[in-house]
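Researcher: Please predict.
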Amino acid sequence: MKHCVIALGVSLVMNSALAVEKPLELIDVFDLEYANQIEFSDDGKLVYFVRNRMDIKTDKKISNIWSVDVKTKQLQPVTSGVHIDYAPILSPQGDRLAFISTRDGSSQIYVKWLSTGAVAKISNLTQSPRNLTWTPDGKHIVFSQFVSASAKTPVSLAGKPKGADWAKPPVYIDDVYYRVDGAGYKKAGFTHLFSIDANGGNAQQLTTGEFNHSGRVSFSADGKTLYFSANRHADYRLKPTNTEVYALDMSSLEVAAITERVGPDRSPTISPNGRFLAYLGYNDKRTNYENADIYVLDLHSDETRVLTQKLDRSVSHIQWDAQSRGLYYSYDSQGQTVVAHQPLKGDAKVITKKVGSEFFGRPYSGGSFDVSAKGDVAFTLADTQRPADVGLIQRGKTERLTQLNEDALGNKALGKVEEIWVKSKHDQLDIQGWVVYPPGFDSSKKYPLVLEIHGGPVANYGPHFSAEAQLFAAKGSVVLYMNPRGSDSYGKAFAQTIHHNYPSNDFDDLMTGVDTLISKGFIDEKRLFVTGGSGGGVLTAWIVGHTDRFAAAVVAKPVINWFSFVLTADYYPFFTDYWFPGKPWEHTEHYMKRSPISYVGNVKTPTMLLTGDADYRTPISETEQYYQALKLQGVETAMVRIPDASHGITARPSNLMNKVAYIQWWFDKHSSN
């Protein structure tokens, strides 16, 4: 009996210890999981999704496909292994699941027969497939794939002796787009559509020409016509957004344009009854932002109308309901992602505002959803305390079907997140933000403040889980993140306030947020810190050039000089045409007035820079310019280069850890207390 008492006592102590909440640490990043790429069975019984986790041995994301039973919440693996399985899509008959996997060392198409569990690789492609779509009869799968072309070599040297070890030949480049962030220098070729037998075989190329064909496709009910979006205009290289919807005859492979206007037309989707073609688009006015609307073409009458013209938000992810009476779609509003239904006649209905972000590093909005034949909605469900799970809306009731992070975060002391609204001191414009309080926050004490600024600049943060913000909070800082003017999810006018005007009064918006928190009495004004990446890096550099109130700053992957940026960034025709009134040599004063480099003479704040050395979106030459300018100016500075990292620095978990660790170290180094 004595031994039983001792054992019971030990058990109680152990359970008590397990119940103690611990602070979030950098290494905990490897324990996080999140769901995305939702695929709902038509009968509404099973939700398929991609379950993402971080592998500590390879320092990479691992993805497998799982299912969850709607009634029992029973989880079941559909695939497994230390590789990446993604892009699940059910066959029209619901008996097979196609997906892409890297399990044999390259991305290939696989099919799983759901009744037997048999899995087969059906492709042997030389390039990665994308955008899988079943034909209506379930016999073929259409996808897009890059097709290589011969590299241009106008010069070929003669006279090389046999066995001689000469230098590698020069690389000749004459394309407008010659390098892409995350992919490096481009190979010669174009992306085309292909079809492959669902039982395996050789893929057949469907499109030709010196144009890129990718993105969502949709079939007519009889499978004879394939609708897709592409930019097949002669000037597509310099006018990259001018896409059209095209119809491809599956017998003759002839292509005909369905739309013809200046602007992007994309995501064609045929209604189940075959009568309507819905797509997304807008009239291009060469502004920094326009709302994408839902257009519906009646294939019987050839009339087109806009369904969402009353909605001052940008629409994405359209999906017809089973009766062809309307469409489900998503949009961002005030930092949250909404799913709604718009009938062909009548007013829209909001289904949920709880779609959770598929990001977990920083609190960007976003998410995915799918709808069953009877109208139930499966979606990514997340909040400030948890990354994305699988959620369900059934008969108006929202339910969480998975708990992917209870083992990782259930015993962690996370910071409480609170929404705030302020009126900008510039013009009283309403600005939304969120405050992350350190665990155990006591309003009678003084805390350092970290202002964290989102990128884009047309993007938005919201009430979503953020590993980076929580890690800063775990170290005892109050974290403020905001959606200053220029952010999306607040309407077109709000986003366009920075058209040809960035950075500008977004600085005032951010400073208003800082002043608001200081006025509450719990912020130590001697320990104000600021950081941000990409567009947030631009604003951070702008801030230290316009005020010295911050004790230290970390400028991540910034643009410092707009003149040099548009002449070195990967997507330069777009940046020149849409972000500025013209080419830099035609508007030098305008470019330089908005460049943080022009104000480097004002900087007194210790400023560290952090960028991936393979970043082609905001090339590291921008970082190097600012670093050297700060050195010449005598400002304390340091440069952190992330090896092999592109613009998405945190694609590898350890890079996210390093990013946070370096920022925290810099702030600690310059903390007066």
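Model: The chain has eleven helices and 40 strands.
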